[in-house]
Amino acid sequence: MSDDPAVDVRGLNHWFGTGDARKQAMFDIDLRLPRGSFTVLMGPSGSGKTTLLTLIGCLRSVQEGSARLLNQELHGAGAEELSHLRQRLGFIFQAHNLHESLTAQQNVVMGVQVSGGIPDDVAQQAAAHALGLVGLSDRINYLPANLSGGQKQRVAVARALVGNPALVLADEPTAALDKDSAADVVDLLKRMGAARGTTTLLVTHDNRILDRADRILTLEDGRIVSVSGQC
Ligand SMILES: Nc1ncnc2c1ncn2[C@@H]1O[C@H](COP(=O)(O)OP(=O)(O)OP(=O)(O)O)[C@@H](O)[C@H]1O
Predict the structure, then answer these.
(1) Which portions of the chain are predicted below pLDDT 50?
(2) Is the distance from the beta carbon of residue 197 to the nearest atom of ligand 1 less than 6 Å?
(3) Which of 10, 49, 157, 221 has the most CB atoms lying inside 10 A of its own CB?
């Protein structure tokens, strides 16, 4: 495995709006995420956590500065390169975003098929395996409506990890969960990340997660104001 960090951001600035409404949201961000690390990104509402996550996740264009993701520069990258890079990422959001009309298994299969060209039987096997890893082997044919909040979020974790992503970006994945389910989801992400060498960046307001992070970054008003933990 390469020693290069999974994410290497330098001098990143970002603005929203145009003309008089133009407002700077990110200021001179420097950030490195070593491969296999588990980093928590904290900060008050409006501090820029989601903006930073979506820039790193190729969901927004980098306007100024450098952001290298898996050894590829995002600033100036074309749509096709960004789309290929996105296929190497796993996303988990606060709202699990499961398709309500699809079973747990079918939802996870969609996570395999983002990269395209995967035979259906292989996708089905991979999805069943991922659901087993998150402890839901006995729920694969359940619709989301018949799963608890914690179980739905575990399906979302399985869907994010089934394609073996190099980097997992999670935005408030435990916000809607009770204490035990939140701990389960984070432990699961950490355990699976460690087993596969996946790098994880997790945005949260949830103090319960902090003791599980290798590193904690704090954003305030679009600036990183503290970094704690190992580098
Ligand atoms: N699409 C947008 N257009 C204009 N301004 C935006 C847009 N998205 C975010 N912003 C502004 O950028 C700043 C950072 O927002 P962001 O959503 O990244 O913060 P956050 O830390 O994720 O907040 P929260 O914890 O509430 O989700 C805020 O001032 C926000 O109003």
Answers:
(1) 1, 231
(2) no
(3) 157
Can you give the pTM of this predicted structure? 0.89
C-alpha to C-alpha distance for 83 and 134, rounded to whole angstroms: 27
Q: Whose CA is nearest to atom 7 of ligand 1?
A: 16
For the chain, which domains are there? 37-60+82-229 (3.40.50.300)
Q: From the CB of residue 62, how many other CB atoms can be counted at a distance below 10 Å?
A: 22
Instruction: Name the strand (E) or helix (H) holding 85.
Output: helix 79-86
Q: Comparing C-alpha atoms, which of 144, 52, 168 is closest to residue 96?
A: 144
Alpha helices in 87-203 (DSSP H): 104-113, 120-133, 149-161, 179-196
Q: Going edge to edge, which strands form the sheet with 64-69?
A: 23-33, 7-16, 64-69, 72-73
Q: Which residues contact 127 (CB under 8 A, 6 or more apart)?
A: 105, 106, 108, 109, 111, 112, 140, 158, 162
In this structure, how many other beta carbons lie within 10 angstroms of the beta carbon of residue 79?
9
Could you tell which of 26, 50, 223 is best to mutate to test the pocket of ligand 1, judged by most ligand atoms within 8 Å of the CB?
50
Give, for ligand 1, the residue of 49, 52, 220 to mutate: max count of ligand atoms closer than 8 Å to Cβ. Answer: 49
Task: Give the ipTM.
Answer: 0.97
- Determine if ligand 1 sits within 6 Å of the CB of residue 94: no
Calculate Rg over the CA atoms of the chain: 18
